[in-house]
Design goal:
This protein has 8 helices and 2 strands. The protein has about 160 residues and is an all-alpha fold. It is elongated, with a radius of gyration of 18 Å. It starts with a helix and ends with a helix.
């Protein structure tokens, strides 16, 4: 039973990774424009914290769907990471190590999106993604959830 549970857990994590890859890189058109490559890269880079969040918040009345998808979607998409990482690796149950892992992974994703022009590199995405992952980590650490996962054999 234990081995079957681990196979299921790893399979679900793999499926999550594939869905995230599709969402982050494949489901939208390239941001390459008529501008030269490095100008396009600069145009798709935001290193000012809360700038994009503030813009979406101000635009909520005019574009509620786009604002909600961007803000809530960036949080919700990383909640499963907060469940999978500590569930699969014991070291990820340390919140400091977990945060460093998520910041590193999201930073690599943001840079890949920037240099492939398949998205933008936005510090606000990092903040929102980290918030979602931390929420998932909190759910993982919540005693009833942790007991349930342990009963299922998902904790080693």
């Amino acid at each position: 039973m234990r081995k079957t549970t681990r196979v299921i857990e790893w399979s679900l994590f793999g499926l999550y990774c594939l869905v995230m890859f599709w969402l982050l890189f494949l489901h939208r058109p390239s941001r390459l424009t008529y501008l030269p490559y490095w100008d396009t890269v600069r145009a798709n880079l935001n290193l000012v914290p809360f700038r994009t969040m503030r813009l979406f918040w101000k635009a909520y009345g005019r574009m509620p769907r786009a604002a909600a998808i961007n803000l809530a979607g960036n949080v919700a998409a990383f909640i499963p990471a907060g469940l999978f990482l500590p569930g699969l690796w014991k070291r990820q149950r340390n919140f400091g190590i977990f945060v460093l892992t998520v910041v590193g992974a999201v930073s690599l994703i943001e840079l890949a999106q920037l240099f492939t022009c398949l998205g933008s590199c936005d510090v606000d995405d990092l903040i929102l993604n980290l918030a979602g992952a931390a929420l998932g980590f909190g759910l993982f650490a919540f005693p009833p959830v942790k007991r349930g996962l342990d009963k299922l054999g998902w904790l080693r």
